[in-house]
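Re: duplicated header lines in exported structure tokens

Our pipeline writes sequence and tokens for each protein into one text file. With two proteins the header for the second block appears twice in some exports. Here is an export where it did not happen, for reference. First protein block:
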Amino acid sequence: MKETDISDKFTPEGWHTVTPRIVAQNPEELFTFLRQVFGATGNHQTDRPSIIMIGDSMIMISEAGIRKSMPAFLYVYVSDCDATYQRALKSGAGSLEEPVDTPYGDRRCMVEDDWGNVWQIASHDGWRNTERASKADSATTTKSNNVLTLES
């Protein structure tokens, strides 16, 4: 029996079964932020939800009004985590987590924009980052106020 992709039957061309949607006050300013930080493309629409693209992923953005503001928590892969983090800070985001190497091969950071959206930004570097993260974990033992703490 041949399996078929059921999304072919009911999703518009180019869409995935699940599409994130952000409802925000001043969505035009959010577009500007996303263009500056992630190189997002797309146009603001006033008569329907706007569609933007970040890389190969689609996000719907709507003006708050009929719906209350509804931020998102999104994990975004980029080619350079550190440069994207710096662009986000320069564009007004607050830092929640500075770039760090993870044991699963991502270099990752986290910011929050002015609309309450949290963007976890990552570059995947495979085992090279994993080895670097293991070394960093073992080297982050610090002394503070005569108390030995481990930072992770």
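Second protein block, exported in the same file:
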Amino acid sequence: MNNNLQTALPIIIVGALLVWSIYRRARRTVGLQLLQPQRLRNRAILFGVIAIVLLSEALVSPFMVLLDAIGVVLGAVLVYVSIRTTEFQQQGEKVYYRPNMWVGVSLIVILVGRIAFRLVFAYDSIEKTATQPHAANGASALQAGYANDPYIISVFFVLCTYYIGYNLWLIYKHRQLRAPGKENV
């Protein structure tokens, strides 16, 4: 019983963190958001670093590069839609924006759907790996499965492209709105 708890505890913790982060992300897709350029800049840099690391891993296969390119194009389409539909309000000295709820929900559904799909099909291989003598534990098998899944990496490229492009555009728009003589958009 204690061994089962030790095996399940990391999975429960990661699952709880994933659910919490999805909840936070979903909450941010509805309603006005305070436009904070420094936070947006930091996110763009973080996603840029992630994209560079993922791209360096993808260079081993033309198929993975193709899937990553598709992810970049889909992310760019989502940026375009978001740019066209984002609303701004200025309240005193602060600028707020309302992101497109459907784009945010789509990003969450795409990511959660792909992770769930991968978990369902990876469960059997994790179980087999964990029962083999001298094999890695189930968590290591799961990590290896994600590292070798070009489709999940392409989904991450959609996310990276979207967040880099959208955050940089929000920073640009913030500068425009804060310029003297500009009114609400």
